[in-house]
Amino acid sequence: MHATALARAFLAGDWNADALATRGQEVFGRRPRWLGRLARDVLELYHRPPLDRPRELAEVIDVLLRRRNVRATPAVTRWFSFEPQMGRMRWPVRPLRTLAELADFAGVDVGRLEWLADTRSWERSAPQEQLRHYRYGWHTREQSPARVIERPKSELKRVQRLVLHEILDAIPAHDAAHGFRRGRSVVTHAAAHSGRHVVLRFDLEQFFASVFGGRVYATFRGAGYPEAVAHALTGLCVNVVPRAEWNAVPKPRDSRLLAAHARLGLRLATPHLPQGAPTSPALASLTAFGLDRRLAALAASYDATYTRYADDLAISGGRGLIRAAPALRRLVDEIVRGEGFRVNDRKSQLMTRAGRQELCGVVVNARPNIARRDYERLKATVHNAAVRGPGDLEPDVLLGRIAWVASLNPRRGARLRDAFAAIDWSAAA
After folding, report:
1. Tell me: the pLDDT tens digits for 214-272?
2. Residue 128: which pLDDT band, with cuts at 50, 70 and 90?
3. Cα–Cα distance, 139 to 110 (Å, whole number)
4. Which residues of 95-108 are buried (b: 16+ CB within 10 A; e: fewer)?
5. Rg of the chain over CA atoms, in angstroms?
6. Distance between CA atoms of residues 204 and 313, nearest Å
7. φ and ψ at 101, to 5 degrees?
């Protein structure tokens, strides 16, 4: 408590030894012998007042007092207040200095903000759905554990979208990241590897759930937000899944997936990025900056190219990558683990030009193209809809699938659009 009181006093005025010691004296109502030396030690460590880091300053003061064997301090008789400030703003994010400013930005009062942020993870034990900020569901998968979906309720989703557009959109991801970025897409990710002799694909296990609150907090602190604001912003963007919801998620039938299922349960019990929140894709990409930087450097050392689309990593290059693949795979696994993620070996593969090279559903052997099986399947769907009626097909969904084909192969896309024009949607179910 004494270190916190001193930190607040030191930050409440002029930043020089006499001023710090004078305010420190007011904290205790008298001047301890060690106070002047402490003020000088603090000034040696901080040339400017760390107005965005009061907790850090308190921890430093506590360490300095213990180093000087100050075991007993006078009782605190006065608490100072100070005005937090943004730290170094490397990007044009929305400045928010205090919780009051963050609450105003979110359009709620401070009490409501603290409830929405849920920094104590009450969601984990909330017994009733109306007391929670998220709704839950899951999708079972054959080759992976179930995907748990965490959908924020309307008020929290509205605030998360503000955070996304006013803050996260202003922070650049690594150049190798192609997911969830303006001007980048699955197509640009795949195109970077077209026409290569060898393509190595790696999949990250449970990408969003692997990004914990501490890394999200570091992202907001790196953008310049004071500790208290960064803490609240983190709370708005992470979640813990209630025990009852996790217990309802079915275990995989394949016993080889049970360990991955257990790891997912541990991750979801820890504050993490929820799959379903609008902020999660951007934050996952930003927290993977170190991963992208290291893997891009590794690929360059092999005269190869690296890109990432969400949890899908790709490295491509010449014939020499075939011989280097075992060593490269070990190094990729080591880097991925060092950055707090895990490679899903079941979905990782080496693809040579002799076979089909496919990334995120895009064939890249010569140039980005739609896989023939996918094109034929969609062509059959459109043809059947034109001949027999659309049934329960939705025109917007079908047009979206056709647009995807057209972005990769305009000629095939034009054929599908012509066939789509022949569908009689008045007969839709």
Report:
1. 999 999 999 999 999 999 999 999 999 999 999 999 999 888 889 999 999 999 999 99
2. confident
3. 36
4. ebbebeebbebbeb
5. 27
6. 8
7. -70, -35
Both tokens assigned to 273: 């990025």
Cα dihedral value 120, 122, 125, 131, nearest 10: 180
Predicted pLDDT of residue 330: 96
240/271 Cα distance (integer angstroms)? 5
Q: In the sheet that 312-317 helps form, which strands lie side by side, from edge to edge?
A: 305-309, 312-317, 198-203, 349-352
267: three-class secondary structure by DSSP: helix
Side-by-side strand order, sheet with 369-370? 358-359, 362-363, 369-370
The secondary structure element, H or E, covering residue 315 is: strand 312-317
Q: Strand 305-309 relative to strand 147-152: parallel, antiparallel, unpaired?
A: unpaired
User: Which tokens belong to 147?
Assistant: 């995907």
Give the single-character DSSP code of 61: H
Chain-wide mean pLDDT for the chain? 93
The reported pLDDT for the residue numbered 392 is 83
Place 427 in a pLDDT band, splitting at 50, 70 and 90.
low
Q: Quick check: 405 and 370 in contact, CB under 8 A?
A: yes
The number of beta carbons lying within 10 Å of the beta carbon of residue 196 is: 23
**394 is written with which tokens?**
């939705």
What are 312's two structure tokens?
Answer: 């899908």
Reported confidence tier of residue 429, pLDDT bands at 50, 70, 90: low
- Rounded to whole angstroms, the Cα distance separating 221 from 230 reads 6
Q: What is the DSSP string of 162-218?
A: HHHHHTGGGSPPPTTB-TT-TT--HHHHHHTTTT-SEEEEEEBTTTGGGSBHHHHHH
Alpha helices (runs of H) in 29-87, residue ranges in sequence order = 35-45, 54-67
Going by pLDDT thresholds of 50, 70 and 90, the confidence category of residue 395 is: confident
pLDDT of residue 90: 94
Which strand (E) or helix (H) includes residue 334? helix 320-338
Alpha-carbon distances of 293 from 103, 150, 339, rounded to whole Å = 35, 29, 11
Exposed, middle or buried, 309 (CB in 10 Å: 0-12/13-18/19+)? buried
Q: Could you tell me which residues are beta bridge partners of residue 323?
A: none
